[in-house]
Design brief:
The chain is α/β, with parallel strands linked by helices. The protein folds into two domains: 7-128, Response regulator (Rossmann fold); 133-229, Orthogonal Bundle (Arc Repressor Mutant, subunit A), CATH 1.10.10. The chain is 40% helix and 20% strand. It contains eight helices and twelve strands. A five-stranded parallel beta sheet has the order 2-1-3-4-5, with helices on both faces. The protein has a four-stranded mixed beta sheet with strand order 8-7-6-12, with helices on one face. α1 (15-25) links the parallel β1 (7-11) and β2 (31-35). α1 (15-25) packs across α5.
Protein backbone atom coordinates (compact mmCIF):
# COMPACT_ATOMS: atom_id res chain seq x y z
CA UNK A 1 0.00 0.00 0.00
CA UNK A 2 1.41 3.41 -0.98
CA UNK A 3 2.01 5.70 2.00
CA UNK A 4 0.97 8.79 0.02
CA UNK A 5 -1.46 9.31 -2.88
CA UNK A 6 -0.12 9.28 -6.42
CA UNK A 7 -1.90 12.46 -7.57
CA UNK A 8 -2.95 15.34 -5.37
CA UNK A 9 -4.63 18.71 -5.99
CA UNK A 10 -4.02 21.76 -3.82
CA UNK A 11 -6.75 24.42 -3.98
CA UNK A 12 -5.42 27.44 -2.09
CA UNK A 13 -5.14 31.11 -2.99
CA UNK A 14 -2.00 31.41 -0.82
CA UNK A 15 0.45 30.68 -3.62
CA UNK A 16 3.47 30.53 -1.32
CA UNK A 17 1.83 27.97 0.96
CA UNK A 18 0.75 25.87 -2.05
CA UNK A 19 4.25 26.02 -3.54
CA UNK A 20 5.93 24.99 -0.27
CA UNK A 21 3.55 22.07 0.17
CA UNK A 22 4.08 20.94 -3.43
CA UNK A 23 7.86 21.13 -2.96
CA UNK A 24 7.55 19.03 0.21
CA UNK A 25 5.35 16.33 -1.38
CA UNK A 26 6.83 15.97 -4.86
CA UNK A 27 10.17 14.41 -3.77
CA UNK A 28 8.04 11.84 -1.90
CA UNK A 29 6.49 10.59 -5.14
CA UNK A 30 3.31 12.71 -5.22
CA UNK A 31 2.33 14.42 -8.48
CA UNK A 32 0.93 17.77 -7.30
CA UNK A 33 -1.24 20.24 -9.23
CA UNK A 34 -1.98 23.59 -7.58
CA UNK A 35 -5.05 25.75 -8.24
CA UNK A 36 -5.24 29.24 -6.80
CA UNK A 37 -9.01 29.72 -6.85
CA UNK A 38 -12.03 27.45 -7.01
CA UNK A 39 -13.07 28.60 -10.49
CA UNK A 40 -9.67 27.65 -11.89
CA UNK A 41 -10.05 24.24 -10.27
CA UNK A 42 -13.63 23.60 -11.40
CA UNK A 43 -12.89 24.49 -15.03
CA UNK A 44 -9.97 22.07 -15.16
CA UNK A 45 -10.75 18.88 -17.18
CA UNK A 46 -9.07 16.77 -14.50
CA UNK A 47 -10.69 18.47 -11.49
CA UNK A 48 -12.35 15.32 -10.17
CA UNK A 49 -9.70 12.81 -11.21
CA UNK A 50 -7.22 13.26 -8.33
CA UNK A 51 -6.62 10.73 -5.57
CA UNK A 52 -6.46 13.42 -2.89
CA UNK A 53 -7.33 17.08 -2.28
CA UNK A 54 -5.89 19.69 0.09
CA UNK A 55 -8.40 22.55 0.20
CA UNK A 56 -8.34 26.02 1.75
CA UNK A 57 -11.66 27.58 2.77
CA UNK A 58 -11.20 31.27 1.99
CA UNK A 59 -11.11 31.02 -1.79
CA UNK A 60 -12.03 33.39 -4.62
CA UNK A 61 -15.06 31.99 -6.42
CA UNK A 62 -16.95 29.06 -4.91
CA UNK A 63 -16.59 28.90 -1.13
CA UNK A 64 -14.29 26.20 0.23
CA UNK A 65 -17.05 24.36 2.10
CA UNK A 66 -19.18 24.20 -1.05
CA UNK A 67 -16.14 23.03 -3.00
CA UNK A 68 -15.66 20.17 -0.53
CA UNK A 69 -19.27 19.11 -1.11
CA UNK A 70 -18.72 19.06 -4.87
CA UNK A 71 -15.56 16.97 -4.59
CA UNK A 72 -17.14 14.56 -2.14
CA UNK A 73 -20.14 13.97 -4.39
CA UNK A 74 -17.78 12.65 -7.07
CA UNK A 75 -16.19 9.90 -4.99
CA UNK A 76 -14.20 8.78 -1.97
CA UNK A 77 -10.97 10.72 -2.60
CA UNK A 78 -9.18 11.99 0.50
CA UNK A 79 -9.86 15.58 1.53
CA UNK A 80 -7.78 17.49 4.07
CA UNK A 81 -8.70 21.10 4.85
CA UNK A 82 -5.81 23.46 5.68
CA UNK A 83 -7.18 26.90 6.46
CA UNK A 84 -6.84 29.93 8.69
CA UNK A 85 -10.59 30.54 8.90
CA UNK A 86 -11.50 31.15 12.55
CA UNK A 87 -15.32 30.71 12.55
CA UNK A 88 -16.57 28.94 15.68
CA UNK A 89 -18.38 26.33 13.59
CA UNK A 90 -15.71 25.86 10.92
CA UNK A 91 -14.71 22.35 12.04
CA UNK A 92 -18.30 21.12 12.06
CA UNK A 93 -18.98 22.75 8.67
CA UNK A 94 -16.06 21.14 6.86
CA UNK A 95 -16.57 17.70 8.39
CA UNK A 96 -20.27 17.69 7.54
CA UNK A 97 -19.41 18.78 4.00
CA UNK A 98 -17.28 15.66 3.59
CA UNK A 99 -13.72 16.51 4.64
CA UNK A 100 -11.63 13.80 6.31
CA UNK A 101 -9.47 16.08 8.45
CA UNK A 102 -9.11 19.77 9.33
CA UNK A 103 -5.82 21.54 10.10
CA UNK A 104 -5.53 25.16 11.17
CA UNK A 105 -2.94 27.49 9.60
CA UNK A 106 -0.17 28.13 10.36
CA UNK A 107 0.88 24.49 10.13
CA UNK A 108 4.15 22.73 9.36
CA UNK A 109 4.45 20.93 6.02
CA UNK A 110 5.35 17.67 7.76
CA UNK A 111 2.10 17.86 9.74
CA UNK A 112 0.11 18.24 6.52
CA UNK A 113 1.99 15.30 5.00
CA UNK A 114 1.25 13.13 8.05
CA UNK A 115 -2.44 14.02 7.84
CA UNK A 116 -2.50 13.13 4.13
CA UNK A 117 -0.74 9.84 4.84
CA UNK A 118 -3.17 8.91 7.64
CA UNK A 119 -6.27 9.65 5.56
CA UNK A 120 -4.85 7.94 2.46
CA UNK A 121 -3.97 4.83 4.47
CA UNK A 122 -7.55 4.55 5.74
CA UNK A 123 -9.02 5.00 2.25
CA UNK A 124 -6.72 2.41 0.70
CA UNK A 125 -7.51 -0.08 3.47
CA UNK A 126 -11.21 0.46 2.83
CA UNK A 127 -10.76 -0.18 -0.88
CA UNK A 128 -8.96 -3.42 -0.17
CA UNK A 129 -11.79 -4.64 2.05
CA UNK A 130 -14.64 -3.40 -0.16
CA UNK A 131 -16.79 -5.81 -2.12
CA UNK A 132 -16.26 -6.35 -5.81
CA UNK A 133 -18.06 -4.83 -8.75
CA UNK A 134 -19.52 -7.29 -11.25
CA UNK A 135 -20.62 -7.09 -14.87
CA UNK A 136 -23.72 -9.15 -15.61
CA UNK A 137 -23.29 -9.62 -19.36
CA UNK A 138 -26.65 -11.24 -20.03
CA UNK A 139 -28.62 -8.54 -18.20
CA UNK A 140 -26.26 -5.81 -19.46
CA UNK A 141 -25.89 -4.42 -15.94
CA UNK A 142 -23.02 -3.32 -13.73
CA UNK A 143 -23.56 -4.49 -10.15
CA UNK A 144 -22.13 -2.24 -7.42
CA UNK A 145 -20.56 -3.71 -4.25
CA UNK A 146 -23.72 -3.10 -2.21
CA UNK A 147 -25.87 -4.84 -4.84
CA UNK A 148 -27.29 -1.94 -6.87
CA UNK A 149 -27.82 -2.92 -10.52
CA UNK A 150 -26.90 -0.24 -13.05
CA UNK A 151 -28.36 -0.56 -16.55
CA UNK A 152 -25.74 -0.12 -19.27
CA UNK A 153 -25.97 1.00 -22.85
CA UNK A 154 -24.21 -1.04 -25.54
CA UNK A 155 -21.29 1.41 -25.49
CA UNK A 156 -21.19 1.37 -21.67
CA UNK A 157 -20.90 -2.41 -21.69
CA UNK A 158 -18.13 -2.29 -24.30
CA UNK A 159 -16.16 0.09 -22.09
CA UNK A 160 -16.69 -2.02 -18.95
CA UNK A 161 -15.58 -5.15 -20.85
CA UNK A 162 -12.26 -3.39 -21.49
CA UNK A 163 -11.79 -2.89 -17.76
CA UNK A 164 -12.70 -6.52 -17.04
CA UNK A 165 -10.02 -7.68 -19.47
CA UNK A 166 -7.44 -5.24 -18.06
CA UNK A 167 -7.76 -6.66 -14.51
CA UNK A 168 -6.88 -3.36 -12.87
CA UNK A 169 -4.36 -2.12 -15.43
CA UNK A 170 -4.84 1.11 -17.35
CA UNK A 171 -6.83 0.77 -20.59
CA UNK A 172 -5.39 2.98 -23.31
CA UNK A 173 -7.38 5.50 -25.35
CA UNK A 174 -6.64 3.41 -28.46
CA UNK A 175 -8.02 0.21 -26.93
CA UNK A 176 -11.21 1.95 -25.80
CA UNK A 177 -11.73 3.54 -29.22
CA UNK A 178 -11.25 0.21 -30.98
CA UNK A 179 -13.71 -1.51 -28.64
CA UNK A 180 -16.25 1.20 -29.41
CA UNK A 181 -15.76 0.61 -33.15
CA UNK A 182 -13.92 3.86 -33.75
CA UNK A 183 -10.61 4.60 -35.44
CA UNK A 184 -8.10 5.64 -32.75
CA UNK A 185 -6.13 7.67 -35.31
CA UNK A 186 -9.16 9.72 -36.28
CA UNK A 187 -11.08 9.75 -33.02
CA UNK A 188 -11.16 13.07 -31.16
CA UNK A 189 -10.36 12.72 -27.46
CA UNK A 190 -13.46 14.62 -26.45
CA UNK A 191 -15.75 11.93 -27.95
CA UNK A 192 -14.10 9.23 -25.86
CA UNK A 193 -14.22 11.47 -22.78
CA UNK A 194 -17.94 11.99 -23.42
CA UNK A 195 -18.52 8.22 -23.46
CA UNK A 196 -16.66 7.81 -20.16
CA UNK A 197 -18.52 10.80 -18.69
CA UNK A 198 -21.90 9.26 -19.53
CA UNK A 199 -20.89 5.99 -17.87
CA UNK A 200 -19.66 7.86 -14.78
CA UNK A 201 -22.93 9.78 -14.52
CA UNK A 202 -24.94 6.56 -14.90
CA UNK A 203 -23.05 5.08 -11.94
CA UNK A 204 -23.30 8.26 -9.84
CA UNK A 205 -27.06 8.46 -10.25
CA UNK A 206 -27.61 4.82 -9.30
CA UNK A 207 -25.42 4.22 -6.27
CA UNK A 208 -23.68 6.08 -3.43
CA UNK A 209 -20.61 3.91 -3.98
CA UNK A 210 -17.63 5.91 -5.22
CA UNK A 211 -17.23 5.92 -9.00
CA UNK A 212 -14.24 3.64 -9.73
CA UNK A 213 -13.36 5.15 -13.13
CA UNK A 214 -10.22 7.26 -13.13
CA UNK A 215 -8.41 9.10 -15.92
CA UNK A 216 -4.72 8.37 -16.34
CA UNK A 217 -3.41 11.54 -18.05
CA UNK A 218 -2.20 11.06 -21.63
CA UNK A 219 -2.66 7.29 -21.36
CA UNK A 220 -6.27 6.20 -20.82
CA UNK A 221 -8.54 5.13 -17.97
CA UNK A 222 -8.43 2.63 -15.11
CA UNK A 223 -11.06 0.88 -12.99
CA UNK A 224 -9.93 1.09 -9.37
CA UNK A 225 -11.56 -1.81 -7.63
CA UNK A 226 -12.19 -5.50 -8.08
CA UNK A 227 -14.22 -6.11 -11.25
CA UNK A 228 -15.41 -9.48 -12.54
CA UNK A 229 -17.89 -10.57 -15.19
CA UNK A 230 -20.44 -13.38 -15.45
Amino acid sequence: MNALPARLAIVDDDQDHAAYLAQYLQPRGVAVTAYHDSDEFLTSPQAFEFDFYVIDLMLPGVDGVDLIRLVRRRGPAGIVVVSGRMDTDVFESVMRAGADMHLMKPVRMEQVALAIEAVHRRIEAGRTQAGAWRLDRKARQLIAPEGTRIDLSENDQAVVECFVAAQGATVTHATLCERLGRDPAAEADNLLHAAIYRLRRRIERATPAGVPLHAEPRVGYSFRGSLTAT
